[in-house]
């Protein structure tokens, strides 16, 4: 009886371990997606900032004046 109980416990622990592995992979992927999204937004903001400055430092103002 004790052996059957231990075998059942081992089976349950293995199932729980598989669930935890899958959950860990899911959340790691979700975090990676969020991180990449954040990086892309930061790169976009940096590019917009560079475009506003332009090569002469007054691209927006220059286009409005001309």
Automatic annotation (TrEMBL):
Could you tell me the superkingdom of the organism this chain comes from? Bacteria
Q: Spell out the protein name for this chain.
A: Transposase
Question: What organism does the UniProt record list as the source?
Answer: Donghicola tyrosinivorans
């Amino acid at each position: 009886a004790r052996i059957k109980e231990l075998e059942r416990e081992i089976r349950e622990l293995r199932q729980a371990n598989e669930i935890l592995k899958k959950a860990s992979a899911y959340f790691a992927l979700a975090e990676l997606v969020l991180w990449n999204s954040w990086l892309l937004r930061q790169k976009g903001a940096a590019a917009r900032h560079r475009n506003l400055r332009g090569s002469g430092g007054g691209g927006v103002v220059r286009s409005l004046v001309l």
